[in-house]
Amino acid sequence: MSFLDALPFGMGIALAALVGLILGSFIATLVLRWPAGRSVLGRSQCDACGRPLGVLDLIPLLSALAARGRCRTCGAPIDRFHSFVEASSALIGMIALALMPGTAGWLWALFGWLLLPLLLLDARHFWLPDRLSALLAVAGLLFAGPLFDAALLDRWIGAIAGGAALAFLAWAYRRTRGADGMGGGDPKLVAAIGCWTGWQALPLLLLLASIGGIGWALSVQRKGDRSLAERRVPFGVFLCAAAFAAVPIWWVLFP
Asked: Where is the Prepilin peptidase A24 N-terminal domain (predicted)?
């Protein structure tokens, strides 16, 4: 980690952006292929004509710009989702290293990169894969201590308390309303996030996620949707966004 701390400020941001672009390319492929049952590790190819893509076709952002957003063989438009995810992943790295240079910033960036596919899969498919939540949890228990200054025991307590709290809320809602009010992946996601934040930051996380969910609900209502109570809410989206945003807010509140 001393190498990361020794990087000049601008170089750290640039390196984090580059790493984010590369990871974003993989994350976009994972989000597009996994729900469709396709291999995530297979060779990339054009979705329209099936032409295998070469190295020059796989440079994040630049390849799509050079090809003007179309396949060089068949001319079919390239899904802009790839560029969106690559740019978002690069932005995660840049924000993290700009606001928290050094080891803590890289840990925050890693946190964001692990949250990003979960956020996207829940937004697109209402799906929070257990394997991704488990990866997030393991990484948190192994590396996340300096990010929230939380001891390993605090992070274990955060995992158990966070997961149990949301599981209880889901059970209580089902018991009183006779229907599911929360997906089964949400408590597991909160448990995994607790492995990063520790129990101390969980109230802040849940507050931010709730504010995001309420804001989304009000936005939908403003658009004239009268069936809001019947709409599925991708709460994992708000949990992931809140978890990433909680890092700088926590350090502002408790420097």
From this structure: 18-96
Number of domains in the chain: 2
Query: 27: domain range?
Result: 1-101
First vs last C-alpha separation in the chain: 22
- Please state the pTM of the whole predicted model: 0.92
Question: Quick one: 114 and 69 in the same domain?
Answer: no
Query: Residue 11 to residues 14, 15, 20, 59, 86: CA-CA distances in angstroms?
Result: 5, 6, 14, 20, 19
**Separation CA 65–CA 57 (nearest Å):** 10
Quick one: 77 and 122 in the same domain? Answer: no
Quick one: 96 and 121 in the same domain?
no
CB 156 within 8 A of CB 131: no
Weakest-pLDDT range from 39-53, 68-82, 103-117, 142-156: 39-53
> Longest C-alpha distance within the chain, in Å?
57
* Same domain (yes/no): 169, 79: no
Q: Give pLDDT tens digits for 231-251.
A: 678 999 999 999 999 999 999
85 and 19: one domain? Answer: yes
Q: 116 and 64, same structural domain?
A: no
Statement to judge: residues 233 and 124 lie in one domain: yes
Model pLDDT, residue 222? 66
Nearest in space to 241 (alpha carbons), one of 201, 217, 212, 221:
212
Contact 115, 243 (CB under 8 A): yes
CA distance 147 to 140: 10
- Which pair of tokens denotes residue 159? 């995992």
- For the chain, what is the mean pLDDT? 88
